[in-house]
């Protein structure tokens, strides 16, 4: 069986991430208003801590950069184009496949020296953003991984 062709795509944080941030902020805001209207001091205190935590997470996420995902025929690589750090090698799993839209989970392999950033990244890809690479990407995702020491048959 032939190995899947090499492919590279850029996963940009787009509309889906913006909608998620907006819905998170809206849900926390409505909960905060509800707690303040109740007049319960404990509920208001807990809600204000949750609001502060979510605001911190949303602030940190505001600079989410594009992620560069690459399959070289053997390994998956992930890097942020603006990062000076080395690309991370890992495994990609399809979490959700809606044909025109993919949700992928990249999990970095264990490293002796911890690399900056989380080990798991979630990437949302849409076919209309990558029309030329879409077929090759799906082949790479669903083809069995090539083993490094395998002998090729006829």
Would you write up a description of this structure?
This protein is α+β, with helices and mostly antiparallel strands and 154 residues long. It has 2 domains: 7-13 and 65-142, no CATH class; 15-61. 35% of the residues lie in helices and 25% in strands. It contains 3 helices and 6 strands. The protein has helices at residues 15-38, 41-61, 134-142; strands at residues 7-11, 67-71, 76-79, 88-97, 101-108, 120-126. Strand 3 (76-79) and strand 4 (88-97) form a beta hairpin. Helix 1 packs antiparallel against helix 2. The longest helix has 24 residues, at 15-38. The model is unreliable at 148-154 (pLDDT under 50).
Please give a handful of descriptors for the protein shown.
alpha+beta; 35% helix; elongated; disordered C terminus
Give a quick precis of the structure.
The chain starts with 6 loop residues before the first strand and ends in a 12-residue tail after the last helix. It is built from three helices and six strands, in the order βααβββββα. By secondary structure, the protein is an alpha+beta fold.
How many domains comprise the coordinates? 2
Number of helices: 3
For this structure, the quaternary state is single chain
Structural class: alpha+beta
Map the helices and strands:
Blueprint: E1 7-11, H1 15-38, H2 41-61, E2 67-71, E3 76-79, E4 88-97, E5 101-108, E6 120-126, H3 134-142
Antiparallel strand pairs: 1-2, 2-3, 3-4, 4-5, 5-6
Helix pairs in contact: 1-2
